[in-house]
Write a structure and sequence with these properties.
single chain, Purple Acid Phosphatase, chain A, domain 2, Calcineurin-like metallo-phosphoesterase superfamily protein, 12 helices, alpha/beta, Calcineurin-like_PHP, 6-stranded mixed sheet, 9-stranded mixed sheet, 400 residues, Metallo-depent_PP-like
């Protein structure tokens, strides 16, 4: 039974340890090396006879997914409706409202910042976890990388939390306490019932000011319990790293620089994950990568990779290109895919398409723009812009 007491000083963590969730199918085999990394050779193949997906690292850091189509989705910021629309466009989510995986053996990657600015954050996390389970049974996979807003919430930084986000946390705690299922079943089931809970909450909402204040305080307490290091949702986030390399592509929320690669992607992922999962391990050795990845050097990132500043001179652009090239060579990747900064022109690439920027600000809490998805097939990248005009050749690149 999954339960969580609002008055408890230490919340119950998910019953399934993150290490147990690395398995990609019931018939998988796991190898743990001397560095305590998990090597999973586990995805079921179908009639297409694709080679299995191999995952290295805990949380996943290096993935070999031979022959798979890779689909990358940017920042979602608590907007379940837009998230579903993006996933339907990507061809991995059924359009009948049943939230079924339709991606077959494809690989879906979400680039972080699911939290903040919207009221359906936990529902989106629940949906992606459910799709992950379904994808594994079909030979596909779903991966997430944590963004700076995930890290901020585990820190207890709630500056950007929508009022509905606090309400969802209160409802989710009550939902957990009422559930008799284990954590995984409870968590993946939330997306199916969250809308009903929201409707009931709206109908019963009191306009009496002091009571609303009490409800807000309750929501803050609930969020603190759920997301603090060792909390149930912090442990969920700990299942994901801050950087992920799939085939010859590297995915991260805000961008990688050479010193991140030099520190070690597996090491960085592992230590940040440990900090999220176990407060007793929150010591100085974990603060180093935590600080390094807190905003992914967001100031440098915004200047280097993301913003098309009119005062960026040719000389500076060459320097940026040099830094990017050095980073890609260090991680042995052909291109980098990032989110973090909304692109008002839609998904686009820069520096000879060695970096793709996929955050389009689709959440109603950001720009409420039309969702877009990056598709990578045989190292050729295309942008999926709409259902009717599935592919846009305006931004396309082939990598050899």
């Amino acid at each position: 039974m999954a339960s969580l007491c609002m008055n408890s000083t230490v919340p119950l963590s998910p019953s399934s340890h993150p290490r147990n969730n690395t398995t990609l199918s019931s018939s998988s085999s796991l190898l743990v090396d001397n560095n305590n990394n998990i090597h999973s050779n586990s995805l079921k193949t179908t009639s297409s006879n694709l080679k299995p997906i191999v995952v290295i690292g805990h949380p996943p850091t290096f993935v070999s997914a031979p022959g798979r189509t890779i689909l990358a989705v940017g920042d979602l910021h608590g907007d379940l409706k837009q998230a579903r629309y993006a996933l339907e466009m990507a061809g991995v989510l059924s359009s009948d409202g049943q939230d079924l995986w339709t991606g077959g053996e494809n690989v879906l990657i979400q680039l972080g910042d699911i939290l903040d600015r919207g009221e359906d954050e936990i529902a989106i996390l629940s949906l992606l976890r459910s799709l992950d389970k379904q994808a594994k049974s079909k030979g596909g996979a779903v991966f997430q990388v944590n963004g700076n807003h995930e890290t901020m919430n585990v820190e207890g930084d709630f500056r950007y939390v929508d009022s509905g986000g606090f309400d969802e946390c209160s409802d989710f705690v009550e939902y957990i306490n009422n559930s008799e299922d284990d954590w995984e079943e409870t968590f993946t089931g939330w997306v199916d019932v969250s809308e009903t809970w929201k409707e009931d909450r709206t109908k019963s909402r009191s306009h009496w000011g002091p009571w609303n204040l009490v409800k807000r305080q309750k929501g803050v307490i609930a969020r603190s319990i759920l997301f603090r290091p060792g909390g149930p949702l912090a442990c969920e986030l700990a299942r994901h790293g801050v950087a992920l390399k799939v085939n010859d592509w590297v995915f991260c929320h805000g961008g990688l620089l050479p010193h991140h690669v030099a520190y070690g992607l597996e090491r960085m992922n592992k230590e940040v994950s440990e900090w999220m999962r176990d407060p007793s391990e929150n010591d100085s050795t974990i603060q180093i990568p935590f600080i390094a990845t807190r905003g992914y050097d967001s100031v440098v990132w915004n200047r280097l990779y993301s913003r098309d500043s009119p005062d960026l001179m040719d000389y500076e652009a060459k320097q940026v290109c040099s830094v990017l090239e050095e980073t890609l060579q260090a991680v042995d990747a052909k291109a980098m895919v990032v989110g973090h900064t909304p692109q008002t022109i839609g998904v686009n690439c820069k520096y000879n398409c060695s970096i793709w920027r996929v955050d389009v600000g689709m959440s109603s809490g950001v720009l409420n723009s039309r969702p877009e998805v990056l598709e990578i097939i045989d190292d050729k990248a295309r942008v999926i812009r709409s259902k009717t005009d599935r592919y846009s050749e305006l931004q396309a690149a082939a990598y050899t």
